[in-house]
From TrEMBL:
Cellular component annotations (GO), alphabetically ordered: plasma membrane
Keywords: Membrane, Transmembrane, Transmembrane helix
Keyword Membrane: yes
Secretion signal, residue range per the UniProt entry: none
Species this protein is from: Labrus bergylta (ballan wrasse)
Family the entry assigns: Belongs to the band 7/mec-2 family.
Primary subcellular site in the record, as a coarse category: membrane
Protein name, UniProt field: Stomatin (EPB72)-like 3b
Domain of life: Eukaryota
SMART domains: PHB
Location in the cell: Membrane
Entry's transmembrane regions: 29-53
InterPro entries: Band-7_stomatin-like, Band_7, Band_7/SPFH_dom_sf, Band_7/stomatin-like_CS, Stomatin_HflK_fam
Band domain location: 51-210
Length: 281
């Protein structure tokens, strides 16, 4: 049966359990101590009951060690569980989601720009036994790993990618952290990039570049407006040339506009058709 299980783990390494395998039984001396502790507990039952019964909350689990060995492959809780006062010890593990800030990190991007980036990580304990048996301090180790992962991921990105693709960078960091902390019984649920601080000189250069781009775009829009206006005037002149009455109407409209203004002197130009009539005579 052991040979079959070992072959299975070799062919499918992802199915290997996170917690360490059993190192053997307690032995004769170990069982003697356990039996002696149980007998001592029964003899002093009214008193030892307060040392044997333990309680863990709904969001907690207890990993029990008996003479230094994990007693069961499943953590105890929530509720009441029983321990022997002399041979058993337990460690409480909190299963709630924990968040922490990644301190600002000085990072050199792929295009040799120094930026200061910070973030936030949300994680929780998915395997209490692995978080106790495989790493000395799962919380502190995850914090350090998040800082190094932030440097490694952002070191492969350009400044433009860093400013425009924060969601992709956060997803890449989450995948890397989740894979690295899987053996520790840690599940990384979310990673967010909080702030990206650029050097002041680079900020001024980017502001000048953005202003120049806006001015160029405004000039292009003004040129397009002039071109459209000239086309409209050309079409209007063609319409007026085809109809002499339209020219008279335009002339009267211009006089009406001039009369509406407060001018001391108004010059009325004569229409060209009247002058041409007298010239013929």
């Amino acid at each position: 049966m052991k040979k079959v299980s070992s072959k299975l783990y070799k062919s499918h390494p992802q199915k290997r359990p996170h917690y360490p395998e059993r190192t053997g039984s307690l032995g004769c001396i170990g069982w003697f101590i356990v039996i002696l502790s149980g007998a001592f507990t029964l003899i002093l039952f009214p008193i030892t009951i307060w040392f044997c019964l333990k309680i863990v909350q709904e969001y907690e689990r207890a990993v029990i060690f008996r003479l230094g060995r994990i007693t069961d492959r499943k953590a105890k809780g929530p509720g009441i569980f029983f321990v022997l006062p002399c041979t058993d010890s337990f460690v409480k593990v909190d299963l709630r989601t924990v968040s922490f800030d990644i301190p600002p990190q000085e990072i050199l991007t792929k295009d040799s720009v120094t930026v200061c980036v910070d973030g936030v990580v949300y994680f929780r304990v998915s395997d209490p036994i692995a978080s106790v048996a495989n790493v000395s301090n799962a919380d502190f180790s995850t914090r350090l790993l998040a800082q190094t992962t932030l440097r490694n991921v952002l070191g492969t990105k350009n400044l433009s990618e860093l400013l425009s693709d924060r969601e992709g960078i956060a997803h890449s960091m989450q995948s890397s952290l989740d894979e690295a902390t899987d053996d520790w019984g840690i599940k990384v649920e979310r990673v967010e990039i909080k702030d990206v601080k650029l050097p002041h000189q680079l900020q001024r250069a980017m502001a000048a570049e953005a202003e120049a781009s806006r001015e160029a775009r405004a000039k292009v829009i003004a040129a397009e407006g002039e071109m459209n206006a000239s086309r409209a005037l050309k079409e209007a002149s063609l319409v007026i040339a085809e109809s002499p009455s339209a020219l008279q109407l335009r002339y009267l409209q211009t006089l009406n506009t001039i009369a509406a203004e407060k001018n001391s002197t108004i010059i009325f130009p004569l229409p060209m058709d009247i002058i041409s009539h007298f010239m013929k005579k």
